[in-house]
Amino acid sequence: MEYISYSFIAFMAAGLILYALLPKSFGKYVLLLASLLFVGLSGGAFSLIFLALGVCVSFFGAAAMERSKSGAVRTGIFLFVLIFHLGLLFYFKYQNFGEYTKELLGFISGEEYYPELIERSAPVGISFYTLMLIGYAADVYMGKYRAETSLPDFSLYASYFGHIVQGPIDAYDEVGHGMAKQGGIRYEDLIEGGLRLCLGLFKKLVISERLALMVNMVFPDYMSYSWGVLLLCAAAFSLQLYTDFSGCMDIVCGASRMFGIRLSVNFRQPFFSQSVAEFWRRWHITLGAFLRKYIYIPLGGNRKGLLRKHLNTIAVFFISGLWHGGNWTYVIGTGLLHCVYMILGEHLKPFNKAVKGALHISEESKLLRIVRSLWVFVLVTIGFVFFRSDSVISAVGYLSGIVALQESLYGPVTLELLGLSASDAVILVIGLVLIFLLSLQAELGRDSIFAWKDDRASAAAAKTKASASANASSLGGQAMAQADAASAMTAGTSDGGAAVMGGASSKLLARKETLLFVMVAVIILFGCYGRGYDASAFIYATF
User: Fold this and answer.
1) What's the CA gap between 449 and 446, in Å, rounded?
2) What's the pLDDT tens digit per position in 403-454?
3) Phi and psi at residue 368, to the nearest 5°
4) What is the pLDDT of residue 384?
5) Which residues are part of the catalytic machinery?
6) Which residues contact 268 (CB under 8 A, 6 or more apart)?
7) How far is residue 520's CA from residue 412's CA, in Å, rounded to a whole number?
8) Among 114, 257, 452, 490, which has the minimal tally of Cβ within 10 Å of its Cβ?
9) How many angstroms separate the Cα of 135 from the Cα of each of 47, 138, 171, 326?
């Protein structure tokens, strides 16, 4: 089952009706049944079996750790839980990493190597729920909170349909406890959840799917296009990835809000970032919070000298890239390359400060902020070229075509060669402008029908904490801000699409009802559904 499908609409309708009609005490069972049904329809009995195994190992393992009075036994149990989860993850996701490594080494040495790949289907959502189950076991092991005693409550947290496929990677103490206490339907939740869901559909169907037409046309045949087209489509993929992933987060957060559940914030206007470090405080926030909490800090963080800090940073970003998939395109594109950016950026701070002083450029200069944001976008886009490419060889070839000012083999480039019609291009531009304006409103904290005063105040508080932490150190500040953002999940804005409401007036509610109907009409009229009116899967659903 896909989030964008008729079956998901029927699934939501049936779930909401049951949720509203049954007593509140049955709410968690409705959600659990719905979530198991979602996993079963998405990945079959195969996915359900492995999900059940993972849930039982973490649940009973945590209970055993809590009962044990021996530190050695507790450590042994935790290591068993950790090895079990990581073993399954490596079996399903990294069976080809050795072959991709041989291919990369062959490329570096000048000898071609053609990897012999093993095809292996992975259980639905294993990349996401594995981290949540490991995080829960680690928190119990460290004594952060007591083990959950209700298997249904814990199963709901692990299998919940709103975050199992693409996240966010919710922490149990922040989201899990509250899920099992939900019940009943509020009209305001339906309207505001519907708005957030429609914003996600707009990002996906109106914008991301049209950007995908360009990207899927050019990337596989990059040697035939001019450097200008390659540059355009590299930027288009960054925007496609953002609207696809953040669009999915809006859909699942909106759907969850309809049931009264508030998931973690996973994006906060990332393309307004002033540095690569800040970009990773705003992009995939919950993954960064997890890596900081369970890897960076245990390794020593920034407390053991500069060299150790850099090594810890490398470890975190290597794991971050590897988490996306067992290919060096991911390890480089969303990991090590960004790590290099951050380390260089930290060492170049004195030089940058001296240049600004010599040129009398104020730190508050709006022009400087725009230039910085554009520069960060360029750096991030280079990494995303690796992320999108089939191999490191293809990514290097793509980027080389831009640097070498490659000429087109097709002659003058037309919209048709980019896979777009004139109407597609117009709709795409208008859609991108609208999302930019919404994001700008959220960034500036201005009034918007998608963000209310209570939201902006909480978001501003989280942003202040993030800025203060960022001044302390590069990665340390980055990850601290990610944790702050995750803890502010029930109140923060997310790219102009937050869905928190505190006593809105009936007039404002009426405006939202009207906007909801307008957005539904816009999505139906201007959505790009592909062949057979079937939108392509979300990019992160493959991880």
Assistant:
1) 10
2) 999 998 888 888 888 889 999 999 999 999 999 999 998 888 876 666 543 3
3) -60, -40
4) 96
5) 324
6) 281, 282, 285, 442, 459, 463, 485, 492, 493, 494, 495
7) 38
8) 114
9) 21, 5, 7, 22
